[in-house]
Specification:
HTH_ArsR_DNA-bd_dom (chains A, B); transcription (chains A, B); DNA-binding; transcription regulation (chains A, B); about 120 residues; WH-like_DNA-bd_sf (chains A, B); homodimer
DNA sequence: CATCAATATTGACATACATCGATGAAGAAT
DNA sequence: ATTCTTCATCGATGTATGTCAATATTGATG
């Protein structure tokens, strides 16, 4: 699970934020752009945004799959798929509790998303 | 060009930001999530992120297609396609100057992107 | 061990999308 | 008017993706 290498650096401080008045930054290289894009892609889906917002508004920012499935109105395999995508992107973490799986937000990772366009 | 209706409201003030400590917000509805996703999708592509970053680092936050094509190393039709996507999403505006087309960043729209995860 | 409940994985399918070459359209210049 | 330059559109193609039904897996329970 490689996670972000590029995102650790100065990139985070506004890779594509508003221009004039802000300090000039070098354009993104292809690899940098691909890494940012893969993070954004993980989040650029209606179902996944809903899942994130539901988990966010839950206690402790964590929720069980059994609650998420009826909340988004998609099939259980589909929800499982989306949760996997979000977890692989580092936006969620997974914890097994007995027979059920709980997913929790990773605030630092969401901060990174926000700062791409800061 | 409908642009955002939902994005105008309270949604913008951190739709999916970090949880605990922040005020509780209602989960996104499907239509809301779809609107946010369509904006994010427009930006969640390596070529388009590169284009945005190049334009951002240019004078006046605007650039000509003739400069963008060699800068990203893709074919002219492909670049034209990406610029259209970004323009349709409201992230860029297009201006015709003689035979060439200039594209400029829309800072307010980028701010909206940043605030989704604020 | 056998069974049940909760998730994950697999396979299939339809749709969306990134990319390019070829062509079209609009303006500038001779 | 013709030609040239710049950009957009079209058509085609391969790949990625969202979705579900069916099945496998894992943990709890009797």
């Amino acid at each position: 699970m490689a996670q972000s290498v590029v995102l650790e650096g100065a990139l985070l401080e506004g890779a594509i934020g508003k221009c004039c008045g802000a300090p000039v930054r070098a354009p993104l290289t292809r690899p940098e752009a691909e890494e940012l894009a893969s993070l954004l892609k993980a989040v650029a889906d209606p179902a996944r945004l809903q899942l994130l917002s539901i988990i966010r508004s839950a206690a402790d920012c964590s929720a069980c799959v059994c609650d998420l499935v009826p909340a988004v109105g998609l099939s259980q395999p589909t929800v499982s798929h989306h949760l996997k995508v979000l977890t692989k992107a580092g936006v969620l973490t997974r914890e097994q509790r007995g027979t059920q799986a709980w997913f929790r937000l990773v605030p630092e990772r969401l901060d990174q998303l926000g700062q791409i366009f800061a």
